[in-house]
Amino acid sequence: MSQASPKVGFVSLGCPKALVDSERILTQLKVEGYEIVPSYGAADAVVVNTCGFIDAAVQESLDAIGEALHENGKVIVTGCLGKRSELIREAYPDVLAITGPQDYASVMSAVHSALPPQRNPLLDIIPDTGIKLTPKHYAYLKISEGCNHRCSFCIIPSMRGDLVSRPVDEVLVEAERLVKGGVKELLVISQDTSAYGVDVKYAERQWRDKSYRTRMTELCDGLSELGVWTRLHYVYPYPHVDEVMPLMAEGKILPYLDIPFQHASPRILKLMKRPGNIDKTLERIRNWRKAVPDLTIRSTFIVGFPGETDAEFEELLDFLREAELDRVGAFAYSPVEGAKANELPNPVSEELKEDRLEQFMAVQAEISAAKLQRKIGRTLKVLVDEAGAHGAVARSASDAPEIDGVVHIANGQLLKPGQFVDVVVEDADEHDLHARLAG
User: Fold this and answer.
1) pLDDT digits (tens, 9 = 90+) for 58-94
2) 417 CB-near residues (< 8 Å, 6+ apart)
């Protein structure tokens, strides 16, 4: 009689890059015969994939580790917070092992030590796409690890290292496999998508009997051959971003750019160690929109950065009004242990940071509401995420999952997740559209 397969619980925290790490670990666990279970009580051990970027994420990760220890007792910690093992050990000395991000071999070694694998042939049947934590119809496609930038507020390079690009043919093969498995939308992610391939000098590889350089534009060209939505995230505003505009204009990839501008004051941007020519940025945004009228630009900003004056905050608001970005996220500056920005003088008070964040989001809410109002009466192609008795929830080309708005379809009860449909927009609020099926 064969032994029961060892059971592993899994907690995944953090950004989409960390989620992809979780998917890879889960896939390997399944390949080796482990059973993944949804509760602490059913698990023989628990893996917690942590985030360690900002204080709130660190606390969330520590709380998750503590909960797993309390509920189960056998805990393996991985992910970005694993780079601060002394912090974890001080809080929870009984964790079985601690590894850093994308260190899959060490995670599996720790699992093997805690739970020797018992192969079960029935559990070795893994889909070609691997184990996915996203719905079947969309998937994150990670094209690189690490980052060559040294933004003063960020510690990602110290956690994930310098840029390491995946070979372009390897990425395209993975994308092809995902599409064959039912994925309708590929979300391209990395720490710096624009820099893809610079570390390998844009090495040329073959896919489908055609040469592609390991470079963002060529990658997008290849992905466009798959006939699904391709959405670009974490795009640093390099000049060659202009090159993807023709692909968007031709409908080869979605007219959507996720570009974290972070601020608009040249002095603050310099302190952040970010590109600081904001007039040129506005000019490029205008040119992008001329080339791609339906372009959606998403961005993130930090308010209350050390030394930010009232006048510099007003510069940021002025930029927001002039740029009229479609989707915006903002954060009050939070000191991150190890970040150079912590050494800057004249920190902004917590009260003022929160006040500025509230002002910032109020301005953006007006912009967003006005832009969405302009879509009333238009027919849009949307991808259905869920459906039920009260209708369906879908997303347009302007909406990335989890972070942007949605399209509510009042008469979409019979739709299926992963289905593309045309809808007519009937109403809008600050974030979402309300529509009915066309025809």
Assistant:
1) 999 999 999 999 999 999 999 999 989 999 999 999 9
2) 135, 136, 137, 384, 385, 386, 387
- For the domain with range 138-374, which CATH number is right: 3.30.70.1060, 3.40.50.720, 3.80.30.20, 3.40.50.150? 3.80.30.20
The answer to whether 389 and 413 are in contact (CB under 8 A) is: yes
Angle, to 10 degrees, between the axis of helix 278-291 and the axis of helix 310-323?
10
Tell me the whole-structure pTM to 2 decimals.
Answer: 0.82
Instruction: Return the CATH fold of 378-437.
Output: OB fold (Dihydrolipoamide Acetyltransferase, E2P) (2.40.50)
Binding-site residue numbers are 15, 51, 80, 147, 151, 154
What is the CATH code for 7-114? 3.40.50.12160
Q: What is the DSSP secondary structure assignment for residue 161, as one 8-state letter?
A: -
pLDDT in tens, 104-163: 889 999 999 999 887 555 444 455 656 777 889 999 999 999 998 889 988 878 888 899
Q: How far is CA 425 from CA 381, 428, 429, 432, 434, in A?
A: 11, 8, 12, 10, 6
Q: Of 112, 111, 117, 99, whose CA–CA distance to 21 is shortest?
A: 99
CA 416 to chain centre: 24
Residue with tokens 């079960």: 120
- Is 97 in contact with 113 (CB distance < 8 Å)? yes
Binding-site residue ranges for [4Fe-4S] cluster? 15, 51, 80, 147, 151, 154
